[in-house]
Amino acid sequence: MRQQHYLVPTLRDVPADAEVASHQLMLRAGLIRQLASGLYTYLPLAQRVLKKIQDIIREEMNKAGAQELLMPALHPAEIWQETGRWDVYGPELMRLSDRHERQFALGPTHEEVVTGLLRDEVKSYKRLPMTVYQIQTKYRDERRPRFGVLRAREFIMKDAYSFDTSREGLDESYRKMYDAYQAIFSRCQLNFRAVEADAGAIGGTGTHEFMVLSDIGEDTIAYCDTCNYAANIEKAEVNQQEYEQVQGSGLPMEKVDTPQAKTIEQLAAMLNVSPSQIIKAVALAVDGQVVVALVRGDFELNEVKVKNLLDADVVELLDEERIRTELGSEPGFIGPVGLDGCKVIADYSIKGMTDALAGANEKDKHVVHVSVDRDFSVECYADLRQISEGDACPRCAGTIHFAKGIEVGHVFKLGTKYSEAMGATFLDENGKEQPMIMGCYGIGVTRTLAAVIEQHHDEHGIIWPRALAPFDIHLIAVNMKDDAQRELAEQLYTQLREAGYEVLYDDRQERAGVKFKDADLIGIPLRITVGKKAGEGIVESKLRKNGETQELKAEQLIEQIPSLLEQA
User: Fold this and answer.
1) Is the pLDDT of residue 333 over 70?
2) What positions belong to coiled-coil segments (predicted)?
3) Which domains does the chain show, CATH number per domain?
4) Strand 380-382 to 343-347 pairing
């Protein structure tokens, strides 16, 4: 490809609204341009990289026995209403109406569509198991698109769906997809970890996220320094052996004045106590119903764990008006003592606490010497708190540490969540109707592109891994007005292409400094420069990865390229 006519508009300055390296470099290197918030055009360089990522995905998916298809991006509301997700998915679902006022959505994911397809086309156990996948544009109305294509409103995704006749079959399909993902992200040369995760709006159990380790990641990973345990912080289990309760004084509960002490920190300072002696009560609306969740004052409540415990669709903080009118309490002073007519659940850290402090459900009032069971009751105990760095590992004697990660893939065991809701059944060996048992497996293709750049760049620009580079070789003619340079560069361009290499040929009438800066910015693995020694038949090679250079005889270049690319 001749660069003079190639659409690769590089920028010298860092765009003001680009916060992270991948966004900055994708703009500067001419990979993307923004159309509107969260909407991007992928220019030719980016498109070539995306194709290579997709090729890797297809190879590994096909190797695992999956079949590629392509489903509509426009979904009629009725199919989402069958599963109930039309009402509960939330504002991220982009909804629209056609000229007949029939409601549709732009697909953020395709569980309903693919379940409807298999429901109509597969009736016998003899046709199962079956896994299908597609690579397609998806749409989500992100509240705050940011970080370029890492959180966009339109993006390319690979989504796959498995259909089995048994839980054991689902386990096998899940393992195949898990292994395929390991291979895909390894081939993309990403430093990643597979972590236990929450299923979120998709539903199901037994899920893993594939996280690319990066300081700019929006997800926090909790991992053990001794064993292989790793989980998204929303999902991470807490070791129940963490809590040792001390013997209390036995003093009766007493109400005390605590003016303006609405936070744990304010209360601890005012009464000169440790936050671990305080019972934190969090008022929640769980599918509209009032629930109070208790956790020790030095910990944070994990609302995802509450949602999973109560098998709820929506968990949100109770607003101040409902705290006063329905809970009969006061914001900032909520406590478990004397609460009537609502469910009270508690983290294991609360169990057995004595001589504790808690809100008195009155403004500027708390109660001291509170003992669990004596002064209030709890409906159930569970692991409800957020794991903390330094906690004991829930699997071994190791210690938990935190890292940031970018989610690039997610695998789910859906079970019968969608097949039962939509009547996707098959006839078993005995002629009995059974629901299909499903799995779901997604990869953010455009997000993977950005994650690669986050991990493969330096102060000069992108450093593409060989497998994903838009071109194998960046051929530069330093001075196109010099006959010897131009003629040798043209000759090499022809020879390299005929040898099967992908070559970006910088034939622009630009200064050498501009060409070299653009080459480093674009980041193609191997640069071949035709310069002042062209008349002697000598060119220079440079590896983008480490800057290593050497002079080569032009006549020997073709035979030396494989060795150079092996090092790139």
Assistant:
1) yes
2) none
3) 3-237+402-453 (3.30.930.10), 243-382 (3.90.960.10), 469-567 (3.40.50.800)
4) parallel
